[in-house]
Amino acid sequence: MNKNGNFKSTVGFVLACVGSAVGMGNIWMFPYRLGQYGGAAFLIPYLIFIVLFGLVGLSAEFALGRMAKTGTLGAYAYCWKNKFGKYIGWLPLLGSLGIAIGYSVILGWVFRSIQGVLTNELLTNDIPAFFTNMTQSFSNVPCHFLVLFVTCLLLFTSATNAIEKVNKVLMPAFFILFIILAIRVSLFNGAIEGYKFLFVPKWEYLLNKETWIMAMGQAFFSLSITGSGMIVYGAYLKDDVDIPKASMQTAIFDTIAAMLAALAIMPAVFSFGIDPVSGPSLMFLTLPEVFKQMPLGNFFALFFFISVAFAGITSLINMLEAVCESWQNRFHISRKKAVLVCGIITFIISVCIENGDIVGKWMDVVTIYIIPFAALLGAITIYYILGWNTLKQELDKGRKKPVGPTFKFLGKYVYVFLAIIILILGILYNGIG
Fold first, then answer.
1. How many angstroms separate the CA atoms of 40 and 390, rounded?
2. Residue 190: helix, strand or coil by DSSP?
3. Residues 395, 63: contact at Cβ < 8 Å?
4. How many Cα neighbours within 13 Å face the side chain of 270?
5. Between these two residues, 395 and 158, which has the higher pLDDT value?
6. b/e code 86-95 from CB counts within 10 Å (16+ = b)
7. Are 47 and 255 in contact (CB under 8 A)?
8. Which residues, at least 6 apart from 176, have a Cβ–Cβ distance to it below 8 Å?
9. What DSSP letter does each residue of 5-50 carry, written as one string?
10. What is the pLDDT of residues 293-329, one digit of tens each?
């Protein structure tokens, strides 16, 4: 058993992984890309890549963690078995810390939006002015601090016990809230235009290379394959769990979450004649404008931002857990000290980049360069340094039927090659996920 404990059930493990995977990309990127790149036609390449990355990408990271019985730093040292291995894991860990720093800023905006709804400040005033005010330097420190305080408090005690309990509550709540929103939105006049935008297939887009590129990037980043975060969750996994099956369950629920976000957002946007967009402006500018115009807007705005907060907190837990677990083991410190130090460092750096332009550039560096390179490093480490035979032994644990040669081919030759392509295309396109 890992000294931080083990997940008590496969359901708890899958929900924790879904909590890590479901995040801002599902909410502010997927709905727009689905409509922009061919509607239902976009789902064909997207689902192909989701299945591929879920099966051989997530499974590989889970298996490495369970085999090494530790997270990022220890897992890479386990594979490389040399002095180089002691240091190579720091890059993926830097990716987890870097994304956590930027993520905490954005989650601070979500918390501030919840406050704005509760005080009736957001929807009764000028929405762009509200957004501008909260994205200035040092303008959202209390809500930003609250995000990290809550996250660190949840991580402060037993790791797996806290992670499992939190995700068993927050992830079902996320799905329920978005289902309610999707049902309510379906009753709006003009909602049909949003469904057309999302689902009317434009088959010609399948001949557009950008459709496949964006589908690949969306699928890859949506599953949180970072060469770090999913390894630490694998370290808390018991030997009787079927890893490929759990990986596919994670991919399925992540896709359902993205589809729910699309069904709750785009029909509402079209109902009120607002241009669809992607990114932070969709969540913090466009949707509040929708809520401002709809009956019981404050009520549904609160529903929406609480749902986003749930998705964000569960993702942030995974990012920080990857760092805390590694520091525990590398520096032989207590869990509480690791969480406290990690939380303080994250807050000090992130509070200095609260400005919207600065945090945007920060996230670009992390997601375009560091994370894709770290994921590629993880793929090479697992499939080539650790090796297929050793990996297969771990993947076969808990399974009735061993994984076959197709899995090896997809992992070693297709997945690793695509990880290289994702890194290159991300740089050329200034981000694809």
1. 40
2. coil
3. yes
4. 21
5. 395
6. eebbbbbbbb
7. yes
8. none
9. ---S-HHHHHHHHHHHH-SHIIIIIHHHHHHHTTTHHHHHHHHHHH
10. 888 899 999 999 999 999 999 999 999 999 999 999 9
Q: Are 302 and 117 in contact, with CB atoms under 8 Å apart? A: yes
What is the C-alpha to C-alpha distance for residues 181 and 304, in angstroms, rounded to an integer?
A: 8
As to burial, measured by CB atoms within 10 angstroms (0-12 exposed, 13-18 middle, 19+ buried), residue 133 is: middle
Q: Provide the H-helix boundaries in 22-119.
A: 24, 30-36, 40-52, 59-68, 72-80, 83-88, 90-118
Residues 60 and 71: their CA atoms lie apart, in Å, by 13
Q: What's the token pair of residue 192?
A: 């049909």
Closest CA to 147 of 288, 350, 327, 284: 350
Angstrom distance (rounded) from CA 258 to CA 368? 21
Of 58, 43, 71, 28, whose CA–CA distance to 363 is shortest?
A: 28
Mean pLDDT of 52-75: 97
Cβ proximity of 39 and 199 under 8 Å: yes
> Alpha helix locations (H) across 238-370?
243-271, 280-281, 287-293, 297-331, 335-351, 356-365
For the chain, the 3-state helix, strand and coil shares in percent, each to the nearest 5, are 80, 0, 20
The residue among 151, 154, 138, 143 whose CA lies nearest residue 110 is 143
Closest CA to 98 of 314, 312, 319: 319
The band of 391, judged by pLDDT with boundaries at 50, 70 and 90, is: very high
Amino acid sitting at position 32: Y
